Amino acid sequence: MEQHYHTVLTIAGSDSSGGAGVQADIKSICANGGYAASVVTATTAQNTCKVTDIHPVPIAHLIAQMEAVLSDIKIDAVKIGMLHAAETIDAVQRTLAAYTPEHIVLDPVMVATSGDRLMDGNAIERLKEFFPDVTLITPNIPEASLLLDKEITRDNMAMCAKELGERYCVSVLLKGGHLPLDEVMTDILYHYRTKEIISIKNPMIKTNNLHGTGCTLSSAIATYLARGEGLEEAVMKGSRYLNQAIEAGKERKLGKGAGPVNHFFVL
User: Model pTM?
Assistant: First the structure.
């Protein structure tokens, strides 16, 4: 009897330091029992301290990568990271529409840790048009604030997650890591189909090693969807995995800046 991999395609930028982007996605997918295929949207020159250069992949080559993978391999779930320009978003949306993968998890990477925007206004508006085509979006607080044009606090977080979901016709995992530090970190899942609001709590871990957490989480969720879990269970398991990876890597040292999580802590 044939056995098939639980396949996840990551579409994202490359991080030369290995802590985020496609490299973190592949680690997270594999650590959670999936098979990772990848499409690179841009290469970066970066380390644990900063990004020094970004080189977008030509659109024709981006589409060629996607066609090569999707025409040959049955993809169970897709994870999408930073799509830096409107034409990139167009290419990804149109190509995926031709193959109709069952699950798409989109991490809307729009705001850098420094607070700087990573996408211009045209790209952000185009990204919003993509949201109804995906299974789940995973914005952090600054990204959700930009999408809603309002301040998000601990008190209005659940209602903001619901507002995002209803406005863009998509399930939302609103991540609370940017809120003022507390002993417990709270994320909010708004399930668009069932209209449920689910609070996900994890202990706050004090560490500087948080590079690539968004990439790691969204890839883990996509992997559990690929493995047949429902949305709520996939989010719960992905969140638990990330918290364990942060805990396992909190004391490790890599480079001079913000280090990565320990993706393969089980080993």
Answer: 0.96
